[in-house]
Structure formats: C-alpha cells, structure tokens
Amino acid sequence: MTDIVSSGPVSLNLPRKVYTMNRLCRLSVLAAGLVLSSFPVLAQSSTASLRGVVTDPTGAVIPGATITATDVLRNLKYAVATDEAGRYVISRLQPSTYQLQVESPGFETAVISDFVLQVAQQATIDVQLRIGTPATTVEVTGAQPLLNMTSAALGQAVENTYIVSIPLVNREFMRLVFLAPGLLAPDNDPGLSNMSNPTRFVSNGVRAGTSDVFIDGGLVTSLEQSNVAGKFLELKPSVETIQEFKVQTNFFSAEFGNTGGAVVNIVSKSGTNEFHGAAYEYHRRDDLNANSFFAKRAGSATIPDFTYNKYGGAVGGPVRLPGLYSGKDRTFFHTSLDIEKNNGARTAFLTVPTARERAGDFSDTRQANGQLYLIYNPFDTYTNAQGQVRRRPFPGNVIPASMQNPIARKALEYYPQPTS
Questions:
Q1: Tally of domains within the chain
Q2: pLDDT of residue 8
Q3: Looking at 284, 310, 344, which one is the last position of a domain?
Q4: φ/ψ of residue 281, rounded to 5
Q5: Phi, psi (5° rounding) for residue 331?
Q6: β-pairing, 109-117 with 137-140?
Q7: Same domain flag for 264 and 160
Q8: Which residues contact residue 66 at a Cβ distance below 8 angstroms, ignoring those fewer than 6 apart?
Q9: pLDDT below 70 — which residues of the chain?
C-alpha cells in the first residue's frame, strides 16, 4: 500500500541552470509534482477532530482567536478562528502527535504541547488565555487525557505499539480486535483458527456478518456470505503498514449507517519528515513444532512437514527530487512489501479413480445403496415409444479405449493412485 499525503499546492522554484532534460520532460515532472502535492488524503471516518472554547480569565468567550494545530511529525499546520461564541473546530486531522497554539490580541499566547490524537477520535480542549502581550508564551505540558464530549460512540483504539509488539500467529492483525470489550469469537474458537474470514467475531451479540472494516475511510469488506459466518477482506494491509486502528462497537455516527455489528477503522502510515523503514522475516517450521496429542497417543513420532515464511519491508518519508522539489513539510510517502510462503502437509480423505476406472471399466462403480452408476454412450441413441431420444449404456458399463479422449488420459496421470 502506498500513501501520498500533502498539505496543499506547492510552488516549485527551479534554479536557473541548464538541465539535461528536454522541455517536455521538465513540464511533465512539474505537472506530476503539482498533482501529487495537491492530492490530500481525506477520509472523514478515519481522521480525528479537535474542538473547544477559548475564554478569558473571567470566563467570557474570545471570538476571532487564531487556533493553530501543528502535526509535530510532519510540521503540517491547520489554522482556524473561533466564532462569535469562542468555539473552534478542526476536522480531518491525521492521527498523530500535535501541538495546539492559541493567539489573540491583548492576551498571552497559549501553547499545549505534544498530545496524541487517535483514529476517529473527537477530542475537546478548552483554553483560557491570560491578559498580556502575544509575545509572551505560556506552554502547557503533561496535559490531562483528552475527553470526548461530542460523540457517545464506544470503542477501543489499538495503537501501533501493540500491533508490532504482540506476537501474532501468521501476523494476522485482525486477531487484536479481541482487545476491545464486547467482542467474542463464535463456535468456541477464541484463537480464530479460520483467519480466511477476518470478521468472524460477534460484537455484543450481533452476528459476524454485519461487521465492517475500513482502511483510511474506504470499505474493504465483501458482502456477507450465506455459507460462512463473517466477511472477507478485499484488501489486507501488512502489519508494518498499519499505524493504528479502532474497534467501534456501539452508537455509530450516520456515516456507518450500513453497519450493524462492529466497525474496525484502520489508519495506514503516511510518512513523516524523517525517513523510517523496517525489514522483517518471520519463520516457522516443523523442526520447531511439538507433536500432536493424537499422534503421540497412536505411537507416531513423525511430525508433518511444515514451513511458513513471511517477509518484507516498509519505508516512508518526505518526497524529495534533488534540484527540483523538496517534500519536507509538504508531501510524504509510505510503501510496503509483504510476501507470504506457506508449505505444509495436509491430511485429507479424497475420492480418486480406482485402477479399473482409470482403464474405463465402471462395472463395479456403485452408489451408496449399491445400485450401479450407468455410463451412457452419447453417440448411441434411440427414440422410445413416447418420441423421446434416449442413450444406451455402454456394454458391461465399460468405455472402450477407442472412445477415450487422449487428453483426458494424459490428465489422468496427475491423479494420485488409490490407497484402498
């Protein structure tokens, strides 16, 4: 998954020197830079918001105060002004660490440093300004936890620290949804052994097929399947791509009106002003596995062959084109590669052609009630008394070698021989 995040249009100031590129190439690079830099990632359901009221020491509201929220990791600034009631709202904030600055003529500047906004969080910070000059700055550190005084939605945010640190079988991040209260696995399967169906969980008694998963505000779950409990992910990001996610279980806003169970809201990483990367390889093999209880009871010391590898990497940072464009404080990227290899033995009971059937002899191929399966000759037909065209069975229920397709005979060689 590759993300491009930008703060807005960018003006490129090219140095006056001779380029080896022709004029067309330079225009193409310039156009591409402008398009990418003016393409912000907007996802209302996955971004955070900040609001509050600005007052003076007497409690009177201060209209027209300048509110600036700065994304510390990307140095992106979001500025608004308070309304006539002293209120402000800053929406569409990417989950990150922020600094809030409040300024107004006749008052000291207030700065609230380094607070964290999480996915889909609606935080409230009320600010009281002291009388003085804007040149004087009052910085508040170690602020109290942000409260949600806007929405009654219930949920649990799973931070990146948990995602990358907690051991996960096959690196399936969806197993972490059980950190949220009210979620249970159906069919007494707390380990979610069947992770081909990631939304296979019950949210506060609501069936699994009504839960949805969003990545950066986009729905990535399939329609509910009639023969399974839950839905499938059409896009499954790697663990190194996920910044954090939130499991919302009750009191959804209108944007989630189609969901009845739970909402898993995932935010992907989008790069910062510093280059960061990771490379990984997770390995499992039969030499490290214990024998199963039933195999040991039967006296078998053989452990089935099994090898599992999951490897890849991720890198993110600012977009930089030497001599042309610097994306610092403007444009960022994050991309990842995830490769999975799974080689393992599996025991299964399957029906394959018998030695006689491989030769075209079905004289002893019978149904469960003992009745013979009749093999009809498609080229030997007759018309019965009712005027219906019917086929005659092969004599002895044996297909002659002259009528057997050579391609089918060749394909038959890939079928395993029967063992019983």
A1: 3
A2: 35
A3: 344
A4: -155, 120
A5: -130, 135
A6: parallel
A7: yes
A8: 79, 81, 101, 102, 103, 104
A9: 1-45, 142-155, 186-199, 225-230, 251-254, 257
Tokens 């004289």 -> residue: 363
- 138 with 112: CB under 8 angstroms? no
Q: What's the pTM value of the predicted model, to 2 decimals?
A: 0.62
The position carrying tokens 């249970």 is 184
How far apart, in Å, are the Cα atoms of 9 and each of 12, 36, 61, 347? 10, 9, 34, 59
Using left for φ > 0, alpha for ψ between -120 and 50, and beta otherwise, residue 347 falls in beta
Closest CA to 202 of 131, 260, 135, 125: 260
Q: Are the beta carbons of 108 and 137 closer than 8 angstroms? A: yes
* Residue that the structure tokens 């990307």 belong to: 74
Residue type, 169: V
User: Among 314, 133, 155, 326, which Cα is nearest to 237's?
Assistant: 314
Give, rounded to a whole angstrom, the gap between the first and last alpha carbons of the chain: 49
Query: CATH number for the domain including 124?
Result: 2.60.40.1120
**Quick check: is 108 in a domain?**
yes
Residue 176 pLDDT? 84
Burial of 334 (0-12, 13-18, 19+ CB in 10 A): buried
385: helix, strand or coil:
coil
**Smallest Cα–Cα separation from 202: which of 214, 215, 190?**
190
- The pair of structure tokens assigned to 220 is 């990535």
Boundary (domain end) residue, out of 118, 140, 162 = 140
pLDDT at site 252? 66
Q: Tell me, what's the pLDDT at 120?
A: 80
Contact call for residues 111 and 97 (beta carbons, < 8 A): no
Asked if residue 85 is part of any domain, the answer here is yes
User: Domain limits at 55?
Assistant: 48-140
| DSSP tag of 273 | S
pLDDT score for 63: 94
Burial (CB count within 10 angstroms: exposed 0-12, middle 13-18, buried 19+), residue 261: buried
Strand 66-71 relative to strand 218-219: parallel, antiparallel, unpaired?
unpaired
Tokens of 156: 């649990």
**What is d(CA 225, CA 309) in angstroms, rounded to the nearest whole number?**
30
Please give the DSSP secondary-structure letter assigned to residue 166.
S
Query: Which contiguous run of DSSP H or E holds residue 356?
Result: helix 355-358
